[in-house]
């Protein structure tokens, strides 16, 4: 199968993910809750610091960076830890609801959240590992300058590939964070192919979405600037929520397919096999 055929299949799988979300709009609640929780975390960290130090907020962190880097990285670790925990927690809930839908069962928000709660130890353990990696990468970036940014970019790309299946693995396999990482990497090696096709489709969804958002914002700007800004922000948040949920559904379907579990309409499309090449 040619590269363009695989890109076409990737696009079809992306559209299938969107159709799944369209037919099960309740799944959008999970990335929405995740986003709200992340905003709350940011406000807690930075808003709390600003409330304590006021106008000296920036100066305090500058002094902290110069005099006590360990404390600064500890704060960063805590921020990463909470953020990763929130993201994975709601993604596990979404993956579980997607699996229920793939199997033809009824899925509820409560059921998804309850299931994530039952996997809280695995989620927390992974958040610790991810936060540790994040702090190490930040440390290297601070020390290596522009070279560090290149290194971080390469490591980040490898990390995203290696962790592709981590969320469903955390959801359904009793593995520690290191073993979950190894398992995810092994699954990618076992059936690695042009999954870039599907990822490319989600990137195109973002580009098309932002293109229309900008066009609409420009038109609304002549009506009222504030209306244009508010509408653009809300539309961007909705776009991110929809595409993020669709991508998670795609990951869930791919994992189910590779572990011989129902993958819903993805099984009907019979494209997952062509997306991954057995090595």
From TrEMBL:
InterPro entries for this protein: DUF6159
Provide the leader sequence positions: none
The record lists the organism as Flavilitoribacter nigricans (strain ATCC 23147 / DSM 23189 / NBRC 102662 / NCIMB 1420 / SS-2)
Q: Which UniProt keywords apply?
A: Membrane, Transmembrane, Transmembrane helix
Coiled coil ranges (UniProt) are none
Write one Pfam family the protein is assigned to: DUF6159
Q: Does the keyword Cell membrane apply?
A: no
| Domain of life, per lineage | Bacteria
Quick check: keyword Amino-acid biosynthesis in the entry? no
- Any idea what this protein is called? Glycerophosphoryl diester phosphodiesterase membrane domain-containing protein
Chain segments annotated as transmembrane: 27-53, 73-102, 123-140, 146-175, 196-223, 229-255
């Amino acid at each position: 199968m040619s590269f363009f055929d695989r890109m076409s299949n990737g696009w079809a799988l992306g559209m299938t993910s969107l159709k799944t979300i369209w037919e099960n709009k309740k799944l959008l609640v999970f990335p929405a809750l995740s986003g709200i929780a992340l905003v709350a975390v940011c406000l807690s960290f930075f808003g709390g610091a600003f409330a304590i130090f006021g106008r000296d907020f920036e100066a305090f962190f500058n002094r902290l960076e110069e005099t006590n880097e360990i404390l600064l990285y500890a704060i960063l670790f805590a921020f990463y830890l909470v953020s990763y925990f929130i993201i994975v927690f709601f993604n596990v809930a979404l993956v579980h609801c997607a699996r229920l839908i793939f199997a033809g069962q009824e899925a509820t928000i409560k059921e998804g959240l309850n299931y994530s709660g039952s996997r809280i130890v695995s989620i927390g353990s992974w958040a610790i590992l991810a936060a540790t990696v994040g702090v190490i990468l930040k440390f290297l970036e601070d020390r290596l300058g522009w070279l560090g940014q290149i290194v971080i970019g390469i490591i980040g790309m490898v990390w995203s590939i290696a962790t592709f299946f981590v969320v469903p693995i955390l959801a359904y396999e009793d593995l520690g964070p290191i073993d979950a990482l190894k398992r995810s990497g092994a699954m990618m090696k076992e059936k690695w192919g042009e999954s870039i096709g599907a990822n490319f489709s989600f990137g195109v969804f973002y580009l098309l979405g932002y293109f229309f958002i900008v066009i609409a914002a420009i038109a609304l700007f002549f009506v009222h600037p504030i209306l244009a800004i508010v509408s653009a922000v809300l539309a961007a948040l909705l776009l991110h929520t929809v595409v993020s949920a669709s991508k998670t559904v795609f990951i869930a379907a791919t994992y189910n397919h590779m572990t011989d579990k129902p993958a819903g309409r993805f099984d009907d499309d019979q494209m997952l096999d062509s997306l991954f090449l057995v090595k």
